[in-house]
Amino acid sequence: MQKKIFFILLAAALFTGHITRAQEVIDEDVIDNLAEKAEPLWSDNDANIKDNTIPAKWNDESAVILLMKRHLIFDREEKLLSRKKLEITEKRRFKIKLIDANAVKTFSTLFFRYTNKNDGFGVKIYKPEGTAEDVSLAKAINVETNDEIPEFFLGFFDKQHRDKSNYYKVPVAGLQQGDILEFVSVIINNIDVTPFSASIFYGGSSVYNFEDQYEYCNKPYPVQVNKLIIESDKNTYLSCRSLNGAPDFNIKQDKDFDVYTWKDENRDRVKDVNFLNERQVLPMIKFTLTYASNFNPKNLFIGEAGQLKNEFKPEEIVEKARVIFSKTKESSVGYYIAHPLKYWSEYIWKAFKKNDIDELPDADYLRYCYYSLRYMIHNKGTTMNNLEFIFILSGLLDKKKIPYDILITSPNTVSTLKDIISEKELLWLLKANNTYFYYPGPNTQMQFKNYFYAGNQALKIPFLKDQQMALIKIDEAKVDDNYAKEELNVSFDPAVKKYTISKTGAYQGIYNDQIYNTAAWGANAFKLNGYCTSDVAEKLMPDEKTMSKDEDEYNEKKKDYEKKIKENFEKLEQSNFPDTVKLTKGEILQLGNCYKNPELKYRSEFTVNAHMLKAGKKLFINLPALIGNQLQLKTEERTRQYDADVTNPRKLSWRINFTVPAGYEVDGLQNLNFTVNNEIGSFTSTAVLNGNLATIDINKTYKERNIPKEKWDKLVKFVDAAYTFSQKMILLRPK
């Protein structure tokens, strides 16, 4: 139940020309071409390339990166004709010393990209005695997706491009500890920047927003030198931030090009790996590139031509946000067929008037607005992003003349508002009737405090003459906003070493969303137990049953889905236990998608292997492990370098009702009593025996989201207590 929740930014993938892969094993002609195009890169006379020594402090590391160098060149050869295609050349050089066997295993498979005949790749291994060996690519095979490719091998613009791949992987034979591995590569990206004349906002100009890039100074291995060079023409703008002690870009002019150089040196490996909000605390350079030809830069998150734009003042952010909102108004009148926003706003309003929703008090009207839009997005597949949701919602409030504020912030797992670099880092929200409205998840309640927004600084955008820009703080999430409550009735069969468990769970806030997304996704469509949404939402569009040809077909689809849910619950329970789970029942008791009943509740029945030790006829069983895996902190993690972020204040509670097997009596329950409580969090457990029923109550609470590193020891105390508890054994002794 303590899975780390990651924020994933949704963004358009970079278009890249793909070649057809007719064979799984690489073609010999391709190998020759790759070597030919890579050959010039080996003659690079960069002084950092020749240095193979490492500081003594890194002798015990798994590996040391001697050099990471990437060089991006935007249309340097002036091949762009009529400004339809922008050619970007990416050159890369990577050099690493492999110290232990784990590093050798990791780099015994290499990856490279091949999209056209201008791409190149070559690999060398340097032995400790000074000899050099070329690595053959003859056994390279296609990679289906980019997901398995380590950062070191991914092309610059492929980090977010995960759906398709033109990559190969190749095994490296003869790699040993002490070797130095080095590769060079060159790849070409051709970007379509044809003027988008259909948009009044762009006015026929060519505008292309590249993916935001986040370059951490710290890597999984220590880094000797990390270097990035970007050469861009006057139509390509760079917005960047150097954060948490990272170096800045340097800029110099070279004829019609701006050359940006970034270099970082002597970085240790990050040892803080738990509760780490990487983009908020780690040294990093983040930047975005925007191609804009014949366009007013004031309307985009860019500076002037040739300017290294490293700050947007609040006034600039608000003004650009106003322009973006105006661009959304364009889409509402049909310029983007996929987002007929004005149509949906009018459609919902007509349904509201037909059902007298427009006559309700403001609080009830707002609830209908939220749940109706949630229903349309997640039940009926209406395409709508964060900004468009706020746009339609504001339009519905305008119809009833309900006052509201439109606010912007940035996801707190990505950036602070003052450090944003592009509009893709903006989050939109609306405040009305003292309630914040966020883009809804499929099971998210209106009152849910979204953790990407909670506690953030936000800017209010003035749209009327008498309104003023204002900086406000969004409400923090509280412990009671997010909780998981589980009760497990457990019996134990010593003969087969298995527990039989009947479990009921109730979840709210982040845990409601987590359980729904993991095990119950799509349950709304089939109105499973506890289905509830805004009544008018069902009148907006036909439901699954209406769309089916007949009731039998609908019932069959529902039956298939309920079977799928049982399978998903088995996977869910399996994630909580190290041993094999066999599910016999999994059902939703209450879906938790309604403001009236915000808890998601489910029941499952399953068997799981028990961790049991025998001492003669005595049995020791690890009953506390039934609360699931608990974090074990390593020795090096006990000294904290960065502040901790636990994502959300929250509370988890378990009750284990254990029926002592016939013929046995239990001992050791007194060892399961724990009490650790401080300002950061708590872990408590109590165990009592009543006849042959042992009951253990466990509570674990994270009281604060952000913990300064100076208070890390307080977090460690109750995290350690939870882990120690989970390892305890109780004794079953024959009577």
Basic shape: globular
Would you identify the regions where 5 or more consecutive residues have pLDDT less than 50?
Answer: 1-23, 332-339
List the total number of helices: 12
Query: Main beta sheet: strand number and arrangement?
Result: 8 strands, mixed
Name the CATH class of the largest domain: Alpha Beta
How many angstroms does the end-to-end distance come to? 37 Å
Q: Based on DSSP secondary structure assignment, what is the total number of beta strands? A: 35
Q: Residue-averaged pLDDT, rounded?
A: 86
Query: The CATH topology of the largest domain, please?
Result: C8orf32 fold
In CATH, the architecture of the largest domain is Roll
Spatial strand order of the main sheet: 5-4-8-2-1-11-14-13
Number of domains: 5
Q: Round the Cα radius of gyration to an integer and report it.
A: 29 Å
Observed structural traits:
alpha+beta, C8orf32 fold, 5 domains, 8-stranded mixed beta sheet, 12 helices, globular, disordered N terminus
Write the layout of secondary structure elements.
Elements: H1 28-38, E1 63-74, E2 85-98, H2 101-106, E3 109-113, E4 120-126, E5 132-134, E6 141-142, E7 167-171, E8 180-192, E9 206-209, E10 213-216, E11 223-233, E12 236-243, E13 250-254, E14 257-267, H3 278-281, E15 284-293, E16 308-309, H4 314-332, H5 341-354, H6 362-378, H7 386-400, E17 405-409, E18 427-432, E19 435-437, E20 457-460, E21 470-473, E22 483-493, E23 498-508, H8 510-520, H9 537-540, H10 544-547, H11 551-574, E24 581-590, E25 600-609, E26 612-615, E27 618-621, E28 644-645, E29 650-659, E30 664-667, E31 674-677, E32 681-690, E33 693-702, E34 706-707, H12 712-726, E35 730-734
Parallel strand pairs: 1-11, 12-16, 22-29
Antiparallel strand pairs: 1-2, 2-8, 3-7, 4-5, 4-8, 6-7, 9-15, 10-15, 11-14, 12-15, 13-14, 17-18, 17-20, 18-19, 20-21, 22-23, 23-25, 24-25, 26-27, 27-35, 28-34, 29-33, 30-35, 31-32, 32-33
